[in-house]
Amino acid sequence: MKHIVIDLEMNPVDRSYRDVRRHMHEEVIEIGAVRLDADFQEEARFQCYVCPEYGSIRRTIRELTGITEEKVAGKPHYKEAFHSFIDWVGDETVKIYSWSLSDVKQLRSECRYKLPDFDIQWLDSRWIDLQRAFDDRLGLHHSLALKHALGAMDHKFEGTAHTALDDAINTSAILVLMQDEVKFRRTMQPVIDILQPKDELSDSIGDLFPELGNLKLDK
Asked: CB–CB of 153/205 below 8 Å?
């Protein structure tokens, strides 16, 4: 069993493409992934820029991700890029993890529109929402953003946020930690303690981890 941690960056479909927007509102412009072996040791990385077909990259996306028109110029469109990713995944049995379900939802909609012959079940049968698994392990009722989850485990973000490969690498660190229950509980004990009912509990998760003040979903 291999383990694939994936992250996507997306760009909105231009509003002039009304027919396309009935099927999908965004296009993938970068795929980043890390492959771990059966022992959760990293063995390979995948990164690919994807040239959007329905509109230029918006300024807000450029500012957020650093992905410019120059970076995607001449790069493969989604169909080719997605097949390259599938080839990289290989034929072995795998589980695919992402932080939240937004990435698999994007792949589903884009495959349905651009790759109608692709069996979506290939994705659905392998996909795991690591964010949900992490939140459930801690007993959280709100979804922690990736940067907040890393902050809770005292893990400094490596690389640049909203860069697909770097996000995947950092997400994989959470997956690895979750495989060792003793180490996970020891690392996360301050958060676990706060979540346990106590008399006259005045502290909050935000008091212990100020960077966790906003628990909204954020890749």
From this structure: no
- Cα gap 105→93, rounded to integer Å: 21
Per-residue model confidence as pLDDT tens digits over 169-179: 999 999 999 99
Q: What is the pLDDT of residue 196?
A: 60
pTM for this predicted structure: 0.87
Residue identified by tokens 């040239």 is: 51
Q: What is the pLDDT of residues 21-57, one digit of tens each?
A: 999 999 999 999 999 999 999 999 999 999 999 999 9
Q: Give the closest residue to 82 by CA, choosing from 117, 54, 58, 56.
A: 117
Cα-based distances in Å from 22 to 15, 158, 174 = 11, 37, 35
pLDDT at residue 148, rounded to an integer: 86
Alpha-carbon dihedral sign for residues 169, 172, 174, 180: negative
φ, ψ for residue 124, nearest 5 deg: -60, -35
Helices 181-195, 164-178: crossing angle, 10 deg rounding? 90
pLDDT band, very low/low/confident/very high, at 15 (cuts 50, 70, 90): very high
pLDDT of amino acid 142: 80
Residues 6+ apart with CB under 8 A from 41: none
